[in-house]
Design goal:
By secondary structure, the protein is α/β, with parallel strands linked by helices. Helices cover about 35% and strands about 10% of the residues. Strands 6-5-4-3-2-1-7-8-9 form a nine-stranded mixed sheet, with helices on both faces. α2 (about 65-80) links the parallel β1 (about 35-40) and β2 (about 80-85). α2 (about 65-80) packs parallel to α3 (about 95-110) and α5 runs parallel beside α11 (about 330-340). The radius of gyration is 19 Å and the shape is globular.
Length: about 350
């Protein structure tokens, strides 16, 4: 289900540009990544099955402001074009969110700033601050068919709040555009289920599509093997991009075209490094490009380019290629989430 407002570039074009791995990036020592996601906070207000953040695999904290300013400036000088003001945590929990957008956009000069949120804390005043600071893309992760299911999967009663916040974001976006001329894209994505649950999801999405420029589907990711196999669920092998244009799991694009910086300054090779096994360098002690092309990163990229990741940190994620993979069933997700949080 897609709805696009005339004149807006599609978020899926940018996603595909990163996940396709251009030829010049297929190297153990590629250029600076096209995009980097940086974690202002590692905390999240949800405990979703499909995200390992809730499983308390690492210590969580807030990014140091001086570190943020230094590394963002450095990455822009290195040639990074797109900056995501989120990684594993929920960025609307950060008091520095709007200030970080303003600094990266107006002080440093990044051409494209994007943000993904679960939506519960994306209240109109917070969203307005982000738009006015220069945010270019705001995407809502929307993965529940009704209020009961939202509470079962996330452990938070937030369904109607999220829908209201999406509608309000549209209103505020239009007000900011009328006043300043700056237009932030509004998007939503959802996990692609099967059977009755998919039909229910499509019905729920009808409530938000009038308020977003585009909605698209994502497969269930295994998050480096951290959320897989519970109660019969089976994720796709690796990180294969969006459901409408999936790519091969090997080599994994995440190692070549997108950087990931944790709140405490580590450069991770994976979109889902919840336990530190993908740490490629400490940016408190080394430059971004030194970490980006560090010896551990080169070794992991070489294994991916050879399509043989046995014995590497990527092995568990790719293992699901040997299984029959289908879309998740909601009852499996709910039961698996209960197991994840120890209930």
């Amino acid at each position: 289900m897609i709805r696009i407002l005339k004149g807006l570039a599609m978020i899926t074009d940018r996603v595909d540009n990163v996940t396709q791995i251009p030829d010049e990036y297929r190297s153990a020592t590629p250029p600076a990544p096209i995009s980097v996601k940086i974690e202002l906070t590692a905390h999240c207000d949800f405990q979703c099955f499909y995200c390992a953040t809730g499983s308390k695999l690492r210590e969580k904290g807030e990014m140091d402001w001086d570190f943020f300013r230094r590394i963002v400036t450095e990455m822009h000088q290195d040639g990074v074009k797109e900056l995501g003001l989120f990684y594993l945590g929920e960025s609307f929990l950060s008091k520095n969110l709007a200030a970080a957008i303003d600094y990266a956009k107006n002080e440093v000069g990044f051409e494209y700033l994007f943000l993904t949120t679960n939506g519960r804390l994306a209240k109109p005043d917070r969203v307005r601050d982000c738009f006015e600071a220069g945010l270019d893309s705001l995407k809502f992760s929307f993965n529940y068919a009704d209020a009961e299911q939202c509470k079962e999967i996330t452990r938070v009663d937030a369904f109607e709040t999220v829908i209201e916040n999406i509608a309000e974001a549209h209103r505020v976006r239009d007000e900011v555009e009328a006043a300043s001329g700056h237009r932030c894209g509004l998007y939503a994505s959802s996990i692609q289920y099967d059977g009755e649950q998919q039909a229910r999801m499509e019905k729920a999405i009808e409530r938000i599509t009038p308020h977003v420029d585009l909605h698209y589907w994502l497969p269930l990711y295994g998050q480096a093997g951290l959320t897989a196999g519970a109660r019969g669920t089976m994720p796709v092998a690796g990180n294969v991009g969006r459901a409408g244009n999936m790519v091969d799991p090997l080599p994994c694009w995440s190692l070549f075209t997108e950087g990931h910086i944790t709140y405490d300054g580590l450069l991770a090779a994976c979109c889902f490094d919840h336990d530190g096994r993908f740490n490629m360098g400490n940016l408190n002690e080394m430059s971004f490009m030194d970490a980006w092309n560090s010896a551990p990163f080169q070794k992991l990229r070489s294994a991916n380019l050879a399509c043989d990741v046995r014995g590497t940190a990527c092995e568990k994620c790719i293992a699901y290629a040997t299984h029959d993979i289908g879309a998740p069933r909601v009852e499996d997700l709910v039961r698996a989430n209960a197991a994840l949080v120890g209930e």
